Amino acid sequence: MALSPTAAQRRLIAAADPATGRLKGPPAQLAALVKRGLAFRHPRPPHDHFLTPAGHRVREAAPGPQAVAVAPEVPAAPDTGGGFAARVGGEDAAPGDAGPARLREVRSAWEGLLELRRMTHPDGSTDRPCGWERSHLVRAAALALEAAGHRPAGPDGGDGYRVRATPQPEAVAVHAPDDATLRACATTLEHAGWQPGEHTDPRTRTRYLLASPRKV
User: Fold this and answer.
1) 148 with 206, same domain?
2) How many CB atoms are located within 10 Å of the residue 128 CB?
3) Once rounded to an integer, what is the mean pLDDT over residues 87-106?
């Protein structure tokens, strides 16, 4: 845990760009926010500073003395542990999962993942999945869908997507309630650097996607 940011630092956080979390201010104040885990410095020129998910939470919280959890410096790829995790469909939604805070967390995770692609691909490209995604196939595909605005299914099914592991290496199955939603998910995954293909379950005759990360 870390102490709450100072009043000056809170003003910088409050003035951050509402969409991207981009910060502007004195270098010393920005560096202090980075040390607290509330901001990160982009590794590429012009080396702008952006809020981390913890910084966004401070921005949303009411002013006053409080403890702030220190978040790791980015790029913050989605977490499969106790932190952020994209919704794969079928799980219980936590309070606030459909609210603006969740949308910001998803957007921040997706932007962090794109930066992870940029930094780990030799050519600096962001148009295809990186190593983290290949080792977390279900979460990576779910993040691409959730970041594009698709709705995950609830615990009782419903109208959303469900992403599941498959016996095939480097492939996930994506289920949707109707063909239109399935095709929309296929388009999203293709734009995110995946190779989706429609298949039919021989037993149930239901359609689903089989999607793999594109390599080139």
Assistant:
1) yes
2) 17
3) 78
